[in-house]
Amino acid sequence: MIRRVFLGLLLCAAALPMRVQAGLAEPPPEGSIRFDVHYGSQGFKVGEASHHWTLADGRYELRLTLEARGLAGLFGLQYAQRSIGTLDRSGLRPELFTVDQRGRKTESAHFDWKAARVSIRRDGVERRAGEIGAGAQDLLSLWHQARRIAVGQAPARLTVATSKSIKKAVLEPLGKEALSLPIGRVEALRVRAYAEDGGLDIHIWLSEQHGLLPVRIRIEDEKGGVLDQRAAQVDVGGPGTAAETKTK
């Protein structure tokens, strides 16, 4: 079930464009977040994840590397995700999303914006495809794109493609919430993404103290399996200029 939770819940595409909120501050152009990774209803810590982003010159690149220890690692909870694409007034526009897991073939989502189509592939071979519209996202880009609706009131209906399937889903703002994380206490805006068929449920908390960066991501599958990533360190800025928040 662990493998299904972490490889099956990989978002890709949003069908409806999101409204850009007036006066919404832009995130830091470069930085990284280290997460403590917890699994299961009891929230046992099973490893760490490292997320890095760059947003510059009309393009973006996002990376996530998750390393588990013990049985969690043996059951496949070790992978790397990458999202690359362009930036415009509406936010992030993915071109390629990849998932690499040790001992498995690369899975990917390829966005063809001219054809309004996303292609889900394994080892370069297409397995299925679906339509996309303006505002389409993948899992990592969604972490940052969620800020576009977090300060609003209206949810957005989404077409969500995992690395294995394509689903209809909703992305909705849930308001403010205070969090106690390894980095300390933060005030956050909470956003939820969930599939209409119940096969996907992701909560994203965006820290107001860190330019609405994602500081907690909680993923739950239809059988109740939970992956909870909680920020333990946040670094923003380029080498030598990073403002750093470390574990307390």
Q: What's the helix and strand layout?
A:
Blueprint: H1 2-8, E1 30-39, E2 44-56, E3 59-68, H2 70-74, E4 79-88, E5 91-101, E6 107-112, E7 117-122, E8 125-131, H3 139-145, H4 147-150, E9 156-161, E10 166-181, E11 184-195, E12 201-207, E13 213-220, E14 226-236, E15 243-245
Antiparallel strand pairs: 1-2, 1-14, 2-3, 3-4, 4-5, 5-6, 6-7, 7-8, 9-10, 10-11, 11-12, 12-13, 13-14, 14-15
What does the model show?
This protein is mostly beta strands and 248 residues long. It is built from 4 helices and 15 strands. The chain has a 15-stranded antiparallel sheet that branches. The protein is globular and about 45 Å long. The relative contact order is 0.21.
Describe this protein with a few key phrases.
15-stranded antiparallel sheet, disordered N terminus, 248 residues, mainly beta, 4 helices, globular
Cα distance spanning the termini: 33 Å
Per DSSP, what share of the residues sits in E-state strands of 2 or more residues?
A: over 45%
What does the overall shape look like? globular
Low-confidence stretches: 1-23, 239-243
The total count of strands amounts to 15
Q: Give the SSE string.
A: HEEEHEEEEEHHEEEEEEE
Helicity level: under 10%
Summarize the structure.
This protein has 248 residues and is mainly beta. The protein has 4 helices and 15 strands.
